[in-house]
Design brief:
By secondary structure, the chain is an all-alpha fold. The protein is built from 6 helices and no strands. Helix 1 packs antiparallel against helix 5.
């Protein structure tokens, strides 16, 4: 996702460091160093992975051949079940419940930042390459009434 993706990853890193050092009670620089190395390794891995997927044509093949098996409802249901179970378990310990609410709030903010970064990159691409988009989509740039259906 470019620079904004790296910025969002760094923000999430800072938030997780704050939670671990201030609220959980981690001490010493070892945790921060290991976390920073893992962050950089993950960023490099996903940049290489996306580069290879993009230039090997895998993304194009996935767009052309949609799978008939939809895993999204299964993942959503299991994720919601896990979150509900964690909230119910943490109700017994007030500090734990407070931490869960903080982590959930931070996660929502990070997801919003990632969503904004995605659509900001798309908008910048539209501004930079309008001629390519007009050649690909005949109705691009025309008023809604003049577009072909």
């Amino acid at each position: 996702m470019g620079v904004l993706g790296v910025a969002v990853a760094y923000l999430y890193f800072i938030v997780s460091q704050k939670l671990m050092y201030v609220n959980v009670g981690v001490e010493g620089p070892l945790y921060a160093v290991i976390s920073a190395v893992l962050l950089v390794a993950a960023l490099v891995f996903f940049q290489i992975f996306n580069y290879r997927m993009l230039y090997s044509g895998t993304y194009d093949r996935l767009d052309e051949d949609p799978s008939s098996f939809n895993l999204s409802p299964i993942i959503t249901a299991s994720s919601i079940g896990y979150i509900v179970a964690q909230f119910l378990i943490s109700l017994t310990v007030s500090q734990s419940f407070k931490m869960m609410v903080l982590v959930a709030a931070y996660s929502v903010l990070i997801l919003i930042m990632a969503y904004i970064a995605t659509y900001l990159h798309r908008y910048i691409y539209i501004l930079q390459y309008p001629e390519q988009l007009k050649s690909m989509y005949s109705g691009f740039g025309r008023p809604k009434k003049e577009r072909m259906r």
